[in-house]
Amino acid sequence: MVFYFTSGCGEYTLYMGKDKYENEDLIKYGLPEDVWFHVDDLSSAHVYLRMKPGMTLDDISENLLLECSSLVKANSIQGCKKSSVYVVYTRWKNLKKTNSMVDGQVGFHRPENVRRMLIEKNNPIVNALNKTKVERHPDLFKEQQDRLREIQEQRKQHKRMEDKKKRLEELQKRKEKEERSYDRIMTSENMVSNKDIQASADNSAAEAYEDDFF
Q1: What is the percentage of the chain residues whose pLDDT exceeds 70?
Q2: Which pTM does this prediction carry?
Q3: 7, 67 in Cβ contact below 8 A?
Q4: Which is more confidently placed, 72 or 185?
Q5: Are 45 and 17 a contacting pair, CB within 8 Å?
Q6: On the CB side of 43, how many CA atoms lie within 13 Å of its CA?
Q7: For residue 70, with 0-12 CB atoms within 10 Å meaning exposed, 13-18 middle and 19 or more buried, which class applies?
Q8: Res 213 pLDDT > 80
Q9: Terminal CA-to-CA distance of the chain, rounded, Å?
Q10: Which long-range contacts (CB under 8 A, 24 or more apart) does 118-123 make?
Q11: Which stretch of 31-40, 176-185, 188-197 has the lowest confidence by average pLDDT?
Q12: H or E element at residue 47
C-alpha cells in the first residue's frame, strides 16, 4: 500500500510507503523524476516528491520543500516529538542499495548530491496534506517500465528531429556553396558576349581568307 498526497503548491504528488517493506519497493521502482526525503540520523518514513519532467532540485520551491520535509518529520516516531530536525533529500537515482543493507536502509552513489535542511514542526501543513491522503495499491514495476519506455521514445523522437535538422542544414550549406560557385562562373571576367563571339568568328574568317589569298 502506498499513501499519496496532493501538494498545495500546484500539481505535484507526494507519496510514501506504509512500512519498511513497501519502502524497499519504492527504493527499487522509483521514477527518474522522484526526489527522496528522510529525517537525518533518525528512523522515518521515506517520502517522495514526483517532480515534473525536466525539473532539477534547484527548481523545487521553498514551500514545496517545506511540505515534503514537514510530512517526513511528522512520520518519524522520534522526529515528530522534536521541535526541529534535519531532513536530507536527493534524487531517487542517487539512492544506493546493497545486499548488506537492512530493509529501509539506503546509501548514496554521490553523497555530495545530498542536500540537508532544518525543519521545524508545522502542523498546519501536515494537516492540509493529510486531508488529501489517498491509499492505493499501484503496480510500481509497471509504472516504472512505462515511464522508462516513454522517456526512451522521447529521446528517439528528439534524435530524429535533430538528425532531420542536421540534414536540412547540410542541404542548405551545399546549396549556398553551389550558388557561390555559380556566381564565380558568371562574373564579368569569365563571361563572353555574343558580340565577342561574332568578332572572333569574323577575325577567324578574315585570317583564313588572307591565308588562302597568299
Answers
A1: 85
A2: 0.74
A3: yes
A4: 72
A5: yes
A6: 7
A7: buried
A8: no
A9: 117
A10: 118/84, 118/85, 118/86, 118/87, 119/66, 119/69, 119/70, 119/73, 119/84, 119/85, 119/86, 119/87, 120/83, 120/84, 121/70, 121/73, 121/74, 121/80, 121/82, 121/83, 121/84, 122/66, 122/70
A11: 188-197
A12: strand 47-50
Contact 79, 39 (CB under 8 A): yes
Q: Which residue has the cell 524497499?
A: 24
Angle between helices 123-130 and 62-74 (to 10 degrees): 80
89, 58 contact by CB (below 8 A): no
For residue 133 the three cell numbers come to 491522503
Provide the residue count of the chain: 214
| pLDDT value at residue 169 | 86
Distance, CA of 171 to chain centre: 30
Supply the DSSP string of 96-126, one letter for each residue: E--TTSPTT--EES-GGG-EEEEEE--HHHH
Q: Could you give the 3-state DSSP secondary structure of residue 136?
A: strand
What pLDDT band is residue 135 in, cutting at 50, 70 and 90?
very high
pLDDT tens, position by position, 9-65: 988 999 999 888 888 999 999 999 999 999 999 999 999 999 999 999 999 999 999
pLDDT at 140: 92
Read off the C-alpha cell for 154.
522521447
